[in-house]
Design a protein that fits this description.
It is a single chain. By secondary structure, this protein is α+β, with helices and mostly antiparallel strands. It has 2 domains: 112 residues, NADH Oxidase, CATH 3.40.109.10; 169 residues, NADH Oxidase (3-Layer(aba) Sandwich), CATH 3.40.109. It has 10 helices and 9 strands. The strands form 2 sheets. Strands 3-4-2-1-9 form a 5-stranded mixed sheet. The longest helix is centred in the first third of the chain and has 20 residues. The structure holds flavin mononucleotide. The site of flavin mononucleotide has 20 residues, from α2 and β7.
Length: 323
């Protein structure tokens, strides 16, 4: 039984700790949590915003939305009902959410909570085995529950999507400011607990849709394996608006889709260069038939090889949780 605010604080702190494993753009982990008097606050950490790749803070806010959803999944798994106030103070836009506990509910179970620890970005090409339609249907329901739409790119859209991804890759490759920012986050100081190490990067390899390279200068890397993405599905999460509230919702929806896919035995990797690069974003708008604003693109598939991807680094709880 929950009795006082110190019990609440302990549960909320546990949820913030679980959310440390959330994925984020370039593994920047651009969030800060604070627990006080039965309330958990989530803030954007602007010192970790990518000035070149993400000048508006869209991907920062999406990343924070994922972390928020991870925290909420952790609470409901154990049978606690969170109440969430999103962007509660218009005078303080970096305060993204306040979470409190409203009482106890039947536990949602461990399936999605366990997927938090299991999930990671797998950049290797997936196998030719198709993703079951039933799983995509479940992901669509989960995404729509967050007020976000899911476009499952079929054969009609694939050529446009391939062109969009290739264009994003070319533009990034020829943008010295982007390359400098990328190098900063792929060459982190020892013990930083963030960024992308070459050990989780995959060298360029033939595949249906090209992926951003996190492997500019050789050395240790993840072998691509036998797949060619033949059975991969490409899902675009989109919203009708394009404000921070939409980005936060897109993050929560991304987390819902990622955790469900992981719990269903699938691998997932985000590919957001198509959204970050303005010229590609405009092309993607056409892929979506101008219905709305793309916020996240996910490659989902059946892994082609046993999963021996190393776990990516995270900062410690003391660095991200106050109180
Ligand atoms: C908003 C967002 C955008 C991302 N964009 C890409 C991307 O374009 N390409 C990629 O390979 N990974 C992308 N990622 C995955 C991150 O690099 C990854 O989550 C991070 O390095 C931590 O690793 P993990 O997911 O294995 O825990 C993205 C993740 C998020 C949340």
């Amino acid at each position: 039984m929950l009795s006082d605010t110190s019990d609440h604080d302990e549960l909320l702190r546990g949820a913030a700790e679980a959310a440390i494993r959330a994925p984020s753009i370039f593994n920047t982990q651009p969030w800060r949590w604070a627990v006080r008097d039965g309330v958990l606050e989530l803030r954007a950490d602007r010192t970790r915003q990518l000035a070149v790749t993400d000048p508006e803070g869209r991907m920062l806010t999406v990343s924070c939305g994922i972390a928020l959803h991870h925290a909420l999944v952790t609470l409901t798994a154990d049978g606690y009902l969170p109440v969430v106030d999103r962007l509660p103070d218009s005078g303080d836009p970096d305060l993204l959410a306040r979470v409190a506990l409203a009482g106890e509910i039947p536990p949602a179970g461990a399936r999605l909570r366990d997927a938090i620890a299991e999930r990671h970005t797998d950049r290797r090409p997936f196998s030719d085995e198709p993703v079951p339609d039933a799983v995509v249907d479940r992901l669509r329901v989960d995404v729509e529950e967050q007020g976000v739409y899911l476009a499952d790119l079929g054969p009609r859209s694939m050529v446009r999507f391939q062109v969009t991804a290739a264009r994003a890759g070319e533009l990034d490759e020829n943008d010295p400011a982007f390359q400098t920012e990328l190098a900063e986050w792929t060459h982190r100081p020892a013990g930083a607990g963030d960024g992308i190490t070459p050990s989780v990067a995959v060298p360029a390899t033939p595949r249906t849709v090209p992926l951003r390279s996190f492997y500019p200068d050789g050395g240790e890397r993840l072998l691509p394996g036998p797949g060619h993405d033949g059975g991969a599905r490409y899902l675009v999460l989109w919203t009708t608006g394009d404000e921070p509230a939409d980005w936060l919702a897109a993050g929560e929806a991304t987390s819902a889709a990622m955790l469900e896919a992981t719990a269903s035995g699938l691998a997932v990797s985000p590919m957001t260069d198509v959204i970050e690069v303005p010229a590609s974003r405009a092309l993607l708008h056409r892929v979506l038939d101008h219905l709305g604003e793309a916020q996240m693109a996910l490659r989902v598939g059946v892994p082609a090889a046993p999963d021996d991807t190393p776990v990516s680094a995270r900062r410690g709880a003391a660095d991200v949780i106050e109180g």
